[in-house]
Sequence to fold (368 residues):
Amino acid sequence: MTLAEAIKSAVLRIAAATGVFKLVLNSEWRRQRLVILCYHGVSTDDEHLCFPGFYMHPRLFESRLEHLRKRDIRVLPLDEALDRLEAGTLPPRSAAIGIDDGFYGMYAAGRPILRRFGFPTTVYMTTYYVHYNVPVFDPMAEYLLWKANGRTISWREIFPEPIFLDDQGRPQAAAMVRNYAILHKLSGPAKNDLLRELAGHLGVDYQDLCARRMLYLVNAPELREWAKEAEFQLHSHRHRLSRDRQTFRRQLSENEAVLQALTGRKCRHFCYPGGMYLPEFPQWLREYGIRSAVHCGGGLAAPGMDHLLLPRVMDTSNLPLEQFDSWITGASALIPRRQSVFHPDQLTQVLEDEGEVLQRCYQATAGS
Fold:
């Protein structure tokens, strides 16, 4: 923890202990605002240890929902929440819950927890892996390398030199695997074959991981079942966007076609893959007929805010309880924060034309 993080944590603990959080939570200012929470995966095994920024242990996920109940947070369906935000009729302590990607772990371990609490949820579903149901390539490559932590991998076809898989070597190796797949324009089946080969070089049982659906998305029957309890909305077909308008629209239409066929519902809401966007994206979404779009800038949705640039709070295993509490009460939105800007290399990971590094990278100031 940096000094700045330690100071912020101490300030938040003092604010909570002295009743500031409760005062903000019950204020008229907070009543006019909506916190949109973002979750990704819930672990069926050790995913939260490999990906603490995306996966949670089931007990932690349950404790977060219990904290919402303890704070008497009113969790609303997304459409109702946005209607009431526009009309100025939000109930006190309003929130909405969004789940990105549709990982199997959230379905198998997280969905029963959500059901017990009765909280409505929106699942922003990327759909390529729904019908081609194998592990998602990028996270599985990282996971395999993590499972082999402390070993050295030698595979000259991909790594010119052996790489020792420590905290420095693993990201380097993962980037090289990803770049190999991009440069060779590997198909989905070819990528899965590459993962199997990678596991073999690392001595990891890939067949066992697949049997346990590790880092899979839900398949079509599971999606239909989940859709009885949650709203499914757009997240692009392949977790990709493009600076080309027609390609951008194609990703949306393919995504929507799969979801509408499986749920019978029209999609009106969207989540930017990776939580990032370029300035032209909101207008393209508006032309497509999208009502709302969320990013990961942090902050509360406020009256008058562009609904195609709605901020969310991403809850993770790394987020301390006092910071989670500060967001749902609204106190964090009142603390001045430095604007964070994504590095262009981050955005290239969710663009179809990855080969060219972006020079225009944009993210809204949180809470603006």
